[in-house]
Amino acid sequence: MARKIDNMFAASRFVLPEQRELYLQLKEDEKLVSMPMLEQDEFESFEYILRDAQQENYAVTITWWGHRKNNLGTTCMMWGKVEWINPNNRRVKLLTDEDVQWIPMDTIIAVKG
């Protein structure tokens, strides 16, 4: 069995707030992923599903990539009704019971109806 003096991290009981913040930030950075590359036909199918959901008034699940730092980010998912598609700014307005989210169409990676 290892003694406490051999394992310095187990022996130290004090952690500075700056060290804790750095550790938590490193753990968050490990979760970041790069943006997946999609084909043009996938983007077209997303647009078709979104327009159909808007016209027929049914809910969809949209997964998109959110930029965090450098070329890395996180994937976000939201379920709701497509309220508006803005062709000029290329954004989708997704409406849920609690929230309204504008999602850029260039960052969408999956749409399920």
In brief, what are we looking at here?
The chain is built from 3 helices and 6 strands.
Low-confidence stretches: none
Task: Give the overall pLDDT as a whole number.
Answer: 87
User: How is the biggest beta sheet arranged?
Assistant: 6 strands, antiparallel
Structural class: alpha+beta
Strand content: 35-45%
Distance between the amino and carboxyl termini: 56 Å
**Secondary-structure element sequence?**
HHEHEEEEE
Shape: elongated
Q: Radius of gyration, Cα only, in angstroms?
A: 21 Å
Q: What is the assembly state of the chains in this entry? A: single chain
Helix content bin: 25-40%
Number of helices, counting only DSSP H or I runs of 4 residues or more: 3
Total strand count, please? 6
Give an overview of the whole structure.
By secondary structure, the chain is of the alpha+beta class. The protein is 31% helix and 38% strand. It contains three helices and six strands. The chain has helices at 8-11, 17-30, 40-56, and strands at residues 33-34, 59-69, 72-86, 91-95, 100-104, 108-112. Strands 1, 2, 3, 4, 5 and 6 form a six-stranded antiparallel β-sheet that branches.
Write the layout of secondary structure elements.
Blueprint: H1 8-11, H2 17-30, E1 33-34, H3 40-56, E2 59-69, E3 72-86, E4 91-95, E5 100-104, E6 108-112
Antiparallel strand pairs: 1-3, 2-3, 2-6, 3-4, 4-5
Quickly list its features.
38% strand, 3 helices, 113 residues, alpha+beta, single chain, six-stranded antiparallel β-sheet
